[in-house]
User: Which sequence fits this backbone?
């Protein structure tokens, strides 16, 4: 009995690779894609994960509190310099269609009694961002959905306008359902079918095929050049990857698109925020065809 007991207590041989194999770029990317299947990572996740306590909220992995005593440094940056926050976990819904049709239906889910609306002149021109509370269609002041912010794309030669609505991920499904109802968007325009994420073991097997002993392993594409693995974003924290992400209305011609994790959002706080943006962003030269 003692001999059988010792046999069962023996630890199984570890299947983990050595650190050199784990730290290969191709294996790192595959491992990152696997680890964010359940909770999506933001673009700044690696930076935050090294310095913050991470929490799982609303389908994302977010930085909650710093691991070091940097509260004074953050306060000093907010008051004297510039502090940047990553708000990319906020959801973005894009509405495209004729301006009159958009304003006509959007007026049903907001009220002028609460302040600004989508028809405000300063916001309609695209110069300023607006904020308001949304309600269920024709139900004001009852059945409030939640607060949102919006910004119009400036007018161009086309008669169609674009409107981006930013909202908290906890409110996304209710507001998206209400928007599809008032615009009668039922038919999906595009369906997102993500590619299956290849694990590091499978990628190594693919690299070893056709290579003899003594040759350096390199992953190559069809043209024979080195293929660079890229980070794959499988859906987002509030949307199933196999669901459609764009809907069109046959009656109004309005298209509703889910741009979550496609348009990133950052917040700059501090007196030097505009100086940082001026030094970082360079205006592109206009090219006419």
Assistant:
């Amino acid at each position: 009995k003692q001999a059988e007991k010792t046999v069962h207590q023996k630890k199984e041989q570890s299947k983990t690779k050595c650190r050199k194999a784990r730290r290969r770029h191709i294996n790192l990317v595959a491992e990152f894609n696997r680890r964010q299947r359940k909770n999506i990572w933001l673009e700044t996740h690696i930076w935050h994960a090294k310095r913050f306590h991470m929490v799982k909220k609303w389908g994302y992995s977010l930085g909650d509190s710093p691991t070091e005593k940097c509260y004074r440094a953050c306060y000093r940056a907010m008051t004297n310099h510039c502090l940047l926050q990553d708000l990319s976990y906020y959801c973005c819904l894009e509405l495209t269609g004729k301006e009159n049709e958009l304003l006509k239906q959007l007026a049903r889910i907001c009220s002028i009694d609460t302040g600004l609306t989508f028809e405000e002149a300063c916001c309609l021109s695209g110069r300023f961002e607006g904020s308001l509370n949304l309600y269920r269609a024709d139900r004001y002041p009852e059945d409030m959905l939640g607060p949102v912010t919006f910004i119009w794309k400036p007018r161009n030669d086309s008669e169609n306008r674009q409107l981006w609505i930013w909202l908290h991920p906890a409110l996304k499904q209710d507001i998206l359902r209400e928007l599809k109802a008032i615009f009668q968007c039922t038919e999906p325009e595009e369906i997102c079918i993500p590619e299956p994420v290849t694990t590091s073991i499978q990628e190594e097997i693919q690299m070893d095929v056709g290579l003899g002993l003594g040759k350096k392993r390199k992953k190559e594409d069809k043209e024979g050049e080195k293929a660079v693995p890229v980070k794959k974003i499988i859906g987002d924290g509030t949307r199933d990857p196999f669901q459609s992400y764009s809907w069109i209305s046959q009656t109004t011609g309005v298209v509703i698109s889910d741009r979550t994790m496609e348009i990133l959002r950052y917040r700059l706080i501090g007196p030097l925020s505009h100086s940082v943006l001026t030094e970082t962003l360079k205006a592109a030269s206009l090219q006419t065809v």
